Amino acid sequence: MSRPELRREADIMQHGKNFLKVNDQVEVITGKDKGRVGKILKIDKKSDRALVERINMIKRHTKARAAGQEGQIIEKEAPIHVSNLMLVCPKCTNTARVANKTLDDGSKVRICKKCSESVEPSKKK
Ligand SMILES: [Zn+2]
């Protein structure tokens, strides 16, 4: 089974020199979740915000839908602005500034400026 090609454009977000992608590990660098690390679940390029796993959780009260049923409180992630996020290098586990590098086959990867390793989320399991 071959995996469907990722629609790369939609999955990459640029903020200054930071490129963030879905499945990247990121650290929150400001706000109430400062210092916490999570995986990017979703990116919204229009608002420059990302949903990060277990980060910026908000409580939503849901109303009872039927008589006799109680409303619930559910927790879910709220989008966080990309300027509050910093990529975490999977190799050296530091927050990393990245550089872009073009490989021999023409594909572009992001590399960590600290350890020079690729920071792309591994596609192989
Ligand atoms: Zn690194």
Main features:
125 residues, mainly beta, 11 strands, SH3 type barrels, binds zinc ion, elongated, two-stranded antiparallel sheet, five-stranded antiparallel β-sheet
Binned, the helix content reads under 10%
* Spatial shape: elongated
Classify the fold: give the CATH topology of the domain at 8-90.
SH3 type barrels
What is the residue-averaged pLDDT? 86
Derived from helix and strand composition plus strand pairing, the structural class reads mainly beta
Order of helices and strands: HEEEEEEEEEEE
CATH architecture of the domain at 8-90: Roll
**What hetero molecules are in the model?**
zinc ion
CATH top level assignment of the domain at 8-90: Mainly Beta
Q: What is the CA-based Rg, rounded?
A: 18 Å
Q: CA-to-CA gap between the ends?
A: 14 Å
Low-confidence stretches: none
The largest sheet, given as strand count, sense and whether it forms a barrel, is: 5 strands, antiparallel
Count up the helices: 1
Number of strands: 11
* Neighbour order of strands in the largest sheet: 8-5-4-3-9
The amount of beta strand, in percent, is: 35-45%
